[in-house]
Amino acid sequence: MRLTETFDWRGRTVRWARWGSGPPVVFCHGTPWSSWLWEPYADALAAEFTVHLWDMPGYGTSSMFPDHDVSLDVQGELLADLLAAWGLDVPERRPHVVAHDYGGAVSLRAHLLHGAAYASLVLVDVVALAPWGSPFFRQVRRTPEAFTTLAPEIHESLVRTYVAGASHVGLREADLDALVTPWLGETGQHAFYRQMAQADQRYTDEVQPRYGELDLPVLVVWGREDTWIPVDRAHRLAQTIPGAELEIVDDAGHLIQLDQPARLATRLHRWLAATSAG
Predict the structure, then answer these.
(1) 108 touches 128 (CB < 8 A)
(2) From which residue to which does the signal peptide run (predicted)?
(3) What integer is the mean pLDDT of 163-177?
């Protein structure tokens, strides 16, 4: 990972990195992921764009302090402040934002509630429309202590099975290891269930009625075989946002970045090149 920089925010430490040259692009990850998923795409785009990666607090290499909330309201407010710290809060430097999963709700809240302005927004298999939250999420919310006290080997097996289920074509062992490793050990195990326990649909309910206000180029991309957030949400979301474009990717599940990397990379480059050109 290249996240060599830090941003201190309300006692949290956010790890981030920036490289490349050209118009700014900010990648937002979801749960239970990290910026690792977006790093190959950032590398590929860095010849033409200044790319920004960051791990939300409670995820990846950022701080996982047990007394800090990691809910969507906190992350949305943080993103707006992080963009300002990067100098991306002025009209001539508005970033293109590419968001996956929870990152969709985070970027939408930052924009609609906290004034973060974007040049364009790409929403990839995002959490944005009710209802959401799997039965597993609901079980963790009811009894988080039953999971935080699991034996480490049982916890690892559970996380590996859960993460693997997000792919349609199957994950390489090295990729599965990379996605699971941040959640191992006592700190990682507690953080894994903490973010689930704090998942609350009210944070999307607050902004969902305002999607019709979005006045910027928006691209919705979805894996046709996404079992975590079914593809009907893609059609609903694109219909809700004025002028949104919709791209459905065949043979891809929720982890579209790993299931169909070439197709996603090609579509992202085409979109960013076109919206940057005006």
Answers:
(1) yes
(2) none
(3) 98
